[in-house]
Structure formats: C-alpha cells, structure tokens
Amino acid sequence: MRLLLQSIWYKLNPPFTRPYFTINRPILIPLNPLYIKYKLRFSVSSLMETLKFDNRALQQLPLDSDEQNYVRTVSGACFSRVRPTPVDNPILVSHSKEALSLLDIDPNKESIEKLVKYFSGNNVLPGSEPAAHCYCGHQFGYFSGQLGDGATMYLGEVINGRGERWELQLKGAGKTPYSRTADGRKVLRSSIREFLCSEAMHYLGVPTTRAGTCITSDSRVVRDIFYNGNPIEERCTVISRIAPTFIRFGSFEIFKRRDSHTGRQGPSLGHDDIKQQLVEYCISTFFPKIQEKEMSLLEKTREFFREVVRSTAVLVSHWQSVGFCHGVLNTDNMSIMGLTIDYGPYGFLDHYDPDFICNGSDDGGRYRFSSQPEICGWNLRKFAEALDPILPLSQGQLVIQEEYTRVFEREYLSRMRSKLGLLQEQDGDVDLVNDLLDTMQRTYADFTNTFRNLNMLFTPGMGGFEASKTACLDKILTQCFTVDELKKLKTPKMDTRQLQLILQLMQQSPQFADERMISKVKSELEKINSHQELEEIDQEQKREEDLSLWSAWLDKYTQRLSIEVGSDATKANSERIVVMNRSNPVVVLRNYVAQAAIEAAEKGDYSEVNRVLELLKHPYTPPTDVPVATGAASPLLTSSDNYSEKPSLSGIGLCVT
Q: Is 126 helix (H, G, I), strand (E, B) or coil?
C-alpha cells in the first residue's frame, strides 16, 4: 500500500525539475518542500525499491528494435535492451557507503540482503531499464569497429534527494549483444581491482567513476589467467558503477566511415540524424550552461568539445601527479566528462619510471606512463574526427591546439608545485621538477614515498635545518632500489632460447617483425644487458652514487625554498607542510596491495578488501593502528604491513594483463 501511495505522490509532486551536470559535478535543483517533508517519514534504506529512476538516455536516444539478447551488429541505435543473468548464491565482498549514498542508499543491516539481490543482477530494481550501450573504439591505435558494453549493463539514471542525476551500471552481469566471443562475466580478482581503484581515485581527488558494491558468487567461469594454456575456474563477480554518464569518445565513433587501415566502419554509418541526437543529448543533459546560450548547433558543439578537451587535460595532469598509469587508453575508455573510467590493467608507479608499462599485453608500450598526455591528445583528435561534420574537423583540431597542451602544462605544473610545497611561481620551477624526476629515475626512487618524505626537510633559516636535511636525505635513500631489487626488476621474462629463436626469425623474415614485437625484443635485450651490469655493482657503490645525485638535487631544492621564506621561516615551513601533506598521498593502490587483498578474498576472507578500502579512504593520512586482517598474510606484504612502503622483493614487477 505504501509503495502505491508513494508512486501516486511522485506523479502528483515531482521532486525535481530538470537536473543537469557541469563538467564533473551535478548541478543541484531546488526540491519541492513537501517532497522533502514526505520523504523524511521513511528511512533511506526502505526506499531502495522505490529509487526515483528517470532514464533520459533511453528516452532521448534510439533503442535497438531487436530485443533478443544475441551477439550481432547493431545499426541505427545507441542502446540495446538486455536482462542481467542471475548468479548462484551471491555474496557481498565489500561496498562503499559513500558511493551508494549518491543514490540515497544506506546499506544498513536490514538492506544488505536486498542490496545483494539487486546489485548482483539476480533481481531488477523497480524503475530500472537494463540496457547495453553501443560504441566503437580505436584500440592500440587501430579502429576496431563495433565494441559496446560486452560485460556492462546500464540500469538507469537515479535522481537522488539532492536533485542529482547518477547513472547506475552493473559490470559482469552477463551477456549482451556486444559480448562478441566472451561470456559477459567478470571474475573476483578483476572486480576487486576495479572496485578498490574507483574509490581510491575518488579519495585521491582524481575525477573518476565510483563503485558502489562488489558481489561475488558460487557461479564459475573458466579463465586462462596467464594465456599459457592452463585455464582455471573462477568465481563470477559483479560490481556496481556510478557516474553522471558513461558516454565516451567511442560512443560517437559508431558513425565512422570505413577505416583505411583496418577496413572496418561504424555500425551506424550514414545515420547523421542519430549523431546529431547524441550531440544534442550530451550538451543539454551534461553541459547546461552551453545549452542555455543563444548559439547555433555548430557553436554549441564547439564549446562542448572545448570543455571535453579541457577536462581531459585536467584529468591527465591528475594521473601524472599521483603516478597513475591507466594501461588501456583506447578511445572507448575516454569519458566525455573528464572522468577515469574502465579500470583494467592499471598500475601506480612504485619506483619512478617514465617508461612504466602496467599492461602486460601492451608489448609496444603505447600506453606507457610518460605517453599518457600524448595519447589522450591523440584520442581527442579521433573524437574531433567523430564529431565532423557537425563540428568541422578543422575547427575541432584548432580547439585542441588552443586548449589541450596549455591546460595540461598549467595544471600539471601547479600540482607539482604543490607536491614540492612551492607556494609561489618561479621561472625555474619546470627545470626543478624535471631534475627531480630525472634523479628519481636514475636512483630508482619510489615515486609516492619520495614526494612524501620531502616534508621532513625544514625551510632554510629554521633551527635544525641541516639536521633535517640529513634526515630527509637518509630517508629518501631508503626509498631507492637496492642492487638485489634491481636484479629482480631487470630479470628477463623470455627464456634465452626463446629470445634467440625470435631474433633468428626476425632476421630471416623481417615482414613478421612488427613494431610491438621489435619493442618487446628490445626491452628483453636491455634487461639482459642491465642484469649483466648489475653483477659488477655492489650495494655500497650504488648507495654512494645515489647519495651524490640526491645531495645535488636537494641543494637546488633548498635554494628554491629560500626564495619563499620571508621574515618568518617557521610560519613559511608550516604553510608549506600543510600544502605538501594534502598533495602527497601516503597510500596508493599499488599492485602488491591489490594483490594481497585478492589473494585473501580468493580464500574466502573479504576482510582484507574492506581494510584496504578504509585505508584508501584516507590516502593523505599515515595508516597507523590498523591491524592486518586475520588470514590475509601474503609474501607480497612489506615488513610494516601498512601498505605505505615500497613493495618487498616478491612484490616487485607485478604486471596485469
């Protein structure tokens, strides 16, 4: 009876007018006071089955006329209706209370059973309309044609009590028309990684999609983890994802003409009317300030693209400043909202390495850490191509030239100044930052901890400055790789005989040696040479070299700090430390941290996942007095077991495919 009354109330008293979003956060719309008074009569958890869905994407964009769920090419549509495939005995691994609160869901004890039921896909939330999104993408530089939500399902758009619009998705809930040869499922290890990193990035202050729940089950799928012919059964796991929208660059590539390199084309080639619908939908829903202006569609599209370019530049500046490497920066993994989306084989830097490749499948290193700004610029150019002719390509390219590099460099340098506690702008700051990164690279210093340890250095002019400099230097030296750690890092992955056979094949048949193969062989040869050189170096010799390099850079740093001292060195130091401590995290989701949580979870112990989640909610606070969960012991853990240290020997070089 209460549900019926509530349904009638919503129809008579709509709680919102038309909520819109700015580039990264929702615009709040004034609510009906009677609605607020009425809503307070019920606990939030009791309203989970009466979430206010307003599925505008399905109302304003074309739907696939074929509602059967089988793999196919979908033409003339942006979404296909689907239904989640149930799993056996769904079990809650973890949830983010803060992310679920965006939907007005409070996961208290009374609602956990319902939470698991609905967010595993076993039941469909009233008002939701499950659908899979059609998109294309350039993968590793080549157009791949139709891709789409092969393992993800749009459930709908929830309007919360603050008038905010949030799209809700399930990932791993079964097959869709876009699953191609896959089964539409995700497993426990990959789901834990995405769940934890979505929340970790949010608390680091990096624009990101959110993750509400991680639910595993007794259903199984077969996976060949290392692609070595040894498949195993793994648990089907489903996560819920939340964002203003999951529309991406690749959403606009479904209209692409035949690609000259791959011969593929977008499934909706020729449907220019749908392209215009998609552009107008995105502008009116997510960029209301542009929509409100008296401008032509061309002008609005240009301003829309300009906002996407700017927000993408800001996003990459965040990644580079916290040492995050995405791993799969295809155009289908780029958000129009400037959000980090689709967490797969990502990785955070341990030691600073501009050539860090976190994706074991990226043989050519296209998506290496230092290439991310360039790659995102390349992806923006492909987005500009996709918007043509609504926005002529020449105009889109001009926007990129005007905005992208300028915004990225400004934002990146600003973040690096904050990490160094520099409160003023000086002409030599770029060189100081580059020299720091060069010193990190040459000494194999830990990226996260080196920045954090710089707060040990007092401002010049303070009592105890020299002692603080010595202490800071000693601490940084402990964050540099030892000779044994370098040997582990530089161990070749290929067997010597295998490498010799490949080299012989490349010499005999050069046509088989593509760019990725050449890069992989080159990397292996460099590791062999480095490993041989390390045999001739002892730890004392390396420490002396590291000491010399770091002493030289710290001298430059202290000279730069002295410019900002003023008359009160103690006050200047306090202000500097505040800025540094809120800019340099203590804890990031390193691969060994995620892997330790996964290993415990695969044994049925989910407490370590939840412990790690709590640590990641406070990345700028030292993790003290947080006990290691029972049963979570792993050889990957450091001696302190608080995840704020560089990886132990066994945790070096972890890579995800």
A: coil
What global pTM score does this model have?
A: 0.90
Instruction: State the Cα–Cα distance between residues 398 and 637, nearest whole angstrom.
Output: 49
- pLDDT value of residue 482: 95
- Whole-angstrom CA distances from 528 to 349, 364, 651 are 22, 18, 20
Alpha-carbon gap, residue 539 to 109, rounded angstroms: 54
pLDDT score recorded for residue 496: 76
Residue 137: name the closest of 259, 241, 305 by CA: 259
Report the relative pairing of strands 186-187 and 91-95 from DSSP bridges: unpaired
Give the three-class secondary structure for 394: helix
CB 188 within 8 A of CB 235: yes
- Phi and psi torsions of 593, nearest 5°: -70, -50
Catalytic residue of the set 64, 104, 149, 332: 332
- From the list 259, 307, 256, the residue with the least C-alpha distance to 135 is 256
The CA–CA distances, whole Å, from 55 to 51, 59, 341 equal 12, 6, 21
Please, which pLDDT band fits residue 47 given cuts at 50, 70 and 90?
low
Confidence of residue 143 (pLDDT cuts 50, 70, 90): very high
pLDDT given for residue 618 in this prediction: 95
Angle CA 243–248–250, to nearest 5:
155
CA distance 502 to 562: 56
Q: What are the pLDDT digits (tens) for 486-513?
A: 988 888 877 778 777 877 787 877 776 7
- Among 85, 81, 84, residue whose Cα is nearest residue 68: 81
- Reply yes or no on whether 332 is catalytic: yes
Report pLDDT for 636: 52
How far is 471 from 480, CA to CA, in rounded Å? Answer: 15
Backbone angles phi, psi at 505, to 5 degrees: -65, -40
Query: Is the distance from CB of 174 to CB of 563 less than 8 angstroms?
Result: no
- For the chain, give percent helix, strand, coil, nearest 5: 45, 10, 40
Phi first, then psi: what are they for 187, rounded to 5°? Answer: -110, 175
Residue pair 468/457 in contact (Cβ under 8 Å)? The answer is yes
- Token pair, residue 359, equals 């994706």
Identity of the highest mean pLDDT range in 14-23, 397-406, 567-576: 397-406
User: Using CA atoms, how far apart are residues 174 and 170, in angstroms rounded to an integer?
Assistant: 9
Q: What is the mean pLDDT of residues 350-377?
A: 95
* Per-residue pLDDT reduced to its tens digit, 600-622: 999 999 999 999 999 999 999 98
Reference 201, options 359, 115, 345, 318; nearest CA is: 318
